[in-house]
Amino acid sequence: MSAKVLTLGEVGALSDRILVANGVSAPQAGAVTRTIVAAERDHCQSHGLYRLLGYVRSMRRNQADGHAVPEVSDIAPSLLRIDAKRGFAPLAFETGLPLLVEKTRRQGIAAMAINHCLHFSALWAEVEPLADDGLVALALTPSHSWVAPAGGRKPIFGTNPIAFGWPRPGREPFVFDFATSAVARGEIELHRRAGKPIPADWAIDKDGNPTTDAAAALDGAMLTFGGHKGSALAAMVELLAGPLIGDLLSTESQKIDNQVGGPPYHGELIIAIDPAGFLGANVADHQARAETLFSGIIDQGARLPSQRRYDARKITATAGVPVPSALYYELVALI
Amino acid sequence: MSAKVLTLGEVGALSDRILVANGVSAPQAGAVTRTIVAAERDHCQSHGLYRLLGYVRSMRRNQADGHAVPEVSDIAPSLLRIDAKRGFAPLAFETGLPLLVEKTRRQGIAAMAINHCLHFSALWAEVEPLADDGLVALALTPSHSWVAPAGGRKPIFGTNPIAFGWPRPGREPFVFDFATSAVARGEIELHRRAGKPIPADWAIDKDGNPTTDAAAALDGAMLTFGGHKGSALAAMVELLAGPLIGDLLSTESQKIDNQVGGPPYHGELIIAIDPAGFLGANVADHQARAETLFSGIIDQGARLPSQRRYDARKITATAGVPVPSALYYELVALI
Prior knowledge:
The structure is a homodimer. By secondary structure, chain A is of the alpha+beta class. Chain A folds into two domains: about 100 residues, Hypothetical Oxidoreductase Yiak, Chain: A, domain 1; about 190 residues, 2-Layer Sandwich (Ribosomal Protein S8, Chain: A, domain 1). In chain A, about 45% of the residues lie in helices and about 20% in strands. The first copy, chain A, has 13 helices and eleven strands. In chain A, the strands form three sheets. In chain A, strands 2-3-4-10-5-6-7 form a seven-stranded mixed β-sheet, sandwiched between helices. In chain A, strand 3, helix 4 and strand 4 form a beta-alpha-beta unit. In chain A, helix 1 runs antiparallel to helix 2 and helix 2 crosses helix 4. The first copy, chain A, is globular, with a radius of gyration of 20 Å. The mean pLDDT of chain A is about 95. At the A-B interface, strand 4, strand 7, helix 8, helix 10 and helix 11 of A face strand 4, strand 7, helix 8, helix 10 and helix 11 of B.
């Protein structure tokens, strides 16, 4: 597969040009571009330039308001709400971030709801800046209803990711970000395109029977990871990032999409905790104890989540990123 | 197996008598007894009267201070800390509960750390009263280091349960409570006693190889549920209910235990959110939307977590609970 190598600066410029050419305002485009550059930098191509195809589709189909100006509401001492107004999630997140950080430091813990956003970016890109700022962070969002509950057969949950960040002074934070579905939906789509069977614990067909056929799986329901435990977590994400903040369930987001296959339109919940609130002057001591947990994992040959991303980051800063030629020309054609 | 049927009142009286006879103060005994009665009421025998054997052992071995008076510290607008002072967790939780509820309603979200407690009770018994009070609740605690990280071979995590509660007006809340280990440690012990093999995804032997031998598993390491995702969650529980609140990791709790096999001595984190903080006067509308998620699960033949407990509750209120005769006489001998 031929590829064109772009510097991260070129990735950003390309992304900005495509978005602005398709009616996205400079602030909305800038925030989306920062998530796309971060994903390419970390070799997370699934959330990189490829996503621009979806962003542009949602503009051309009038799903997104590319000129939305997110509005911050200070609704309780430890809560804030950002109305994304049918804009993309990244600008809503960036708009709310300063007040979330301020509240978390003042109150000890705080929660930010983002409402009415088109969510198409990775959650690790949101917990990482909070952890870089010394805070502990948890982020949750539903999606479209593609996933059946344990013991069921009909899709009702989204892929419902959970992301968590823990600050590590002087180095990249401990960050994980995973779907509560057994696998990303795109992974099943890749198997279908390649004509390859999928593992038996990824999905069921539309009659509720186990299947290794990717097309039957896409027509049926995905399964959660970890059986009834993963299913319980998927329900928790629906509740916390849905009804709790007055926003949509994955089934409701799916209905609004009306089968056009756009990015999910719904809400997100971010919770942040300031370790200094519990630990006062002893933060460094207890953070050092947390490091013994991490070394206990690494020293036995296991891996910390996000390590692959951080390793990629060291390379792409100078080497740039390879973009498949077919994708590159498809993107350039959007300008 | 012969059994003696006790009313729930008799369960409570027996529990109180045993604890007080073994040097536990009336307030500490009362709080422990309430969790034991709740467990027997819900047919959760593993957290019922059987646990008294462990409580008494921890008194006789001087691990617990049966007369500890938990101390509440109001450390930040949305944070509080309960020092359990080497007493049992239930009284520390009950002591902190009113201030946690008050802070949650005032601030929108609040977190309570319990430090220096012997934790031997179920977490669902803590999130359920918060949800009964109309709040959303999340509770986390480490344990002893019995569980290997994904890709590793040495035990470093506890069984690290996560419990979640969501209020359902006029009925029992949506509650789940599960270990992030593949299975409870007691389950492997039961297989060992019965000479039965265990499933291959529960544990590894001390050399890190998969095993179906229960004794080899107990000598080796348990595995997390759900592979690297469950492993990430187990690490999150260690961090949030350990270093974040200035309390012990499961490896540290294990060292203090010094192989006597007592209840873990460590901390716990409880986070509560008031739906009214986000939803104001619209709480009922959005709770009704949450109910469509639950009916969407039930209507396809799947089960909500805790349903079995709630069903048992309807029976035991009048029928009482059967206590195996061997356990009953072992308990009576402790008085």
